[in-house]
Amino acid sequence: MFRNLSTEIKHFNQQPHDFRILVLTNMIYALVLPVIDIFVAAYVMRNSNDPTKVVIYQLTIYTGIPLTFLLNGFLLNRFSIKVLYSAGMLLSGVSMIVMMSLKTLDLTGIGIAGIIMGMSFGFYWANRDYLALSITSDQNRNYYYGLETFFYTIIAVIVPVCIGWFIEAGGDINVNNAYRIITGLVFVITIFASVVCFRGRFRNPDEKTFLYLRFHPYWRKLLMLASLKGLAQGYLVTAPAMLIMLLLGKEGALGTAQSVGAIIAAVLMYIIGRAAKPEHRITIFACGLICFALAAVLNGVLYNATGVVIFMLFLLLAKPLLDMAYFPIQFSVIDILSKKEKRNEYAYILNHEVGLYAGRFLGAGTFIFLAYYFSTEVALRYAIIIIAVLQLLSIAVGKRIVKEGKALIKEISEKTTAVV
């Protein structure tokens, strides 16, 4: 066992310096992500008892993200990518401070906190995606995302349990004080992650132009895949918190449910990421989508405490499998088209966010429509099933992307050879 661990550490240390720094930065910031993804939504739910407000909060976040991707493109011409990346991490703490300072959770206050959190995500993901694209190759991206997913999943075991029971230990009177203490810890962690980030030798994009309106037809297929992915994101960020608060009722139970099976999932993700080759990505992607569909159906059929725990268990497998396959597929398309069209890679990262936003808006809008015209229960039971079934279309789209990608690589290679 120790020999195997030593081998894995040695393999990690053999990676480029910036590869290791980016992984370490994201690993530290990962301590914050369960708080942002789950417990902020739980805070809104607890203090408003209105699932619609939770979804509106999420929509303001999703609105802030693409706008900040655009702003980030202009700022990259003036500021170091490390500064912008760190700003994204720090803003997540600022957003939580704004949320906790609100005396009443009205739509204006929720909207302001949501926009700030959206800016946080925008700066963080825009620069994180560009850095991950620039410091990895198609051959080591499975390992990169397998390693990140391993740490994220392990952290998803520890953080939700600790925070959930810490909140519950305070009782109903001191629960908001507990949230404020957690917010303070989040801010400290984001500062530490920023310090580590500045140890990297990260470079800004060389090409300054990043705004384009027309793209190769191949890119439209990835935008379709992004929209399908966004469908689930628009619902999944808040749905687990709402389901657990309504059907289990406690943050401690929320944290425990998040942790079920996560250790096994983490080890599995690392092994898959270490062993998988580029040709395995569609298989991994399909497994993630099937797990997600099973989670949705079982939640809709059972719709009770047991159903929620099963739902969370399947999500612990589905989400990392999807991310491990999706991001390398996305980056492979960007690698191909940036060479073919001779454009800044950030142009594709920015435009990709438009596809995600369209899907997120539709996913969250589906929930609001069902909740408003029918009931919250109908929305929580059936919106996710509709989304999961639609997402299964991603398998066919993904296969088409991989097939066309091979043809384009061959075409670019032949042109390069002819020029030489």
Automatic annotation (TrEMBL):
Lineage of the organism: Bacteria, Pseudomonadati, Bacteroidota, Chitinophagia, Chitinophagales
Membrane topology: Multi-pass membrane protein
Source organism of the structure: Chitinophaga qingshengii
Domain of life: Bacteria
Keyword Transport: yes
Transmembrane residue ranges: 21-44, 56-76, 83-102, 108-126, 147-167, 179-202, 222-247, 253-272, 284-303, 309-333, 354-374, 380-398
Cellular localisation: Cell membrane
Protein name: MFS transporter
Gene3D superfamilies, A to Z: MFS general substrate transporter like domains (1.20.1250.20)
Pfam families xrefs: MFS_1 (PF07690)
Keywords noted in UniProt: Cell membrane, Membrane, Transmembrane, Transmembrane helix, Transport
PANTHER family: INTEGRAL MEMBRANE TRANSPORT PROTEIN, RESISTANCE PROTEIN MDTM, PUTATIVE-RELATED-RELATED
Record keyword Transmembrane present: yes
Primary localization class, coarse: membrane
